[in-house]
Amino acid sequence: MLTPHTARRNFYVFKRYSMEQIVQLNSNAKLSDHFTLGEMTRSNSHPEVYNIPTHEAIANLKRVCEWLEVLRKRYNDKYGVGEEPIRINSGYRSPQLNKKIGGVAGSNHLTGCAVDIRVLGMEQLIRYAAILLDYTDESKQDFDELLIERNRYGAIWLHFAVRPFSNRRKVAFIRA
Fold it and tell me: What is the pTM assigned to this prediction?
């Protein structure tokens, strides 16, 4: 028998199932040769939070991925032992996800303009940063932020952001 309670429960189950299906269908969409929408929107810490980017944010993610492709190729050409991937900790964040993880209110992650890149240690992080800085000079393109970040537990990562315009070329060490 369909009661108001079971109808409401069935609606939420359907709604949740439908949302998961949408995310699964889009997660394999390629933003570039080696980067997918799924890895740029995944949240390991809060998978329950709605994190679907707008078309504008997807265009911004594609722009960031162009830089990541250059980073991947140059790193592998010079230091790699084959085709090592660039691993992303965080890319696009919805306002809900950004709030949940304690992100900055005006974060470039909110518009799909930023990624946090996982590194194996400080040496790899510095090499990544040097490659991105060299590419900036060679290509005459600017980035918005290149931040070496460390949290209170000692984990480090490289935050990199590229906006469509008004890039500041901000380089800094940040304690997150």
Answer: 0.84
**Residue 1 falls inside a structural domain:** no
What are 116-130's pLDDT values in tens digits? 999 999 999 999 999
- Render pLDDT for 30-87 as a digit per residue (tens, 0 to 9): 999 999 999 999 998 999 998 999 999 999 999 999 999 999 999 999 997 778 899 9
Which residue is associated with the tokens 């949408």?
22
Residue 72 corresponds to which amino acid?
Answer: R
Burial of 111 (0-12, 13-18, 19+ CB in 10 A): buried
Structure tokens, 133? 């800085």
Specify whether the CB–CB gap between 60 and 40 falls below 8 A: no
Band (23; pLDDT cuts 50, 70, 90): very low
Quick check: is 150 in a domain?
yes
Cα distance between residue 92 and residue 48, in whole Å: 15
* Dihedral sign computed on CA atoms, order 69, 132, 111, 20: positive
**Which of 117, 23, 111, 127 lies closest to 63 in space, CA to CA?**
111
Helix (H, G, I), strand (E, B) or coil at 130: helix
CATH of the domain at 35: 3.30.1380.10
Task: Return the amino acid letter for 146.
Answer: L
H or E element that contains 26 = helix 4-27
CA angle 68, 152, 126 (to 5 degrees): 35
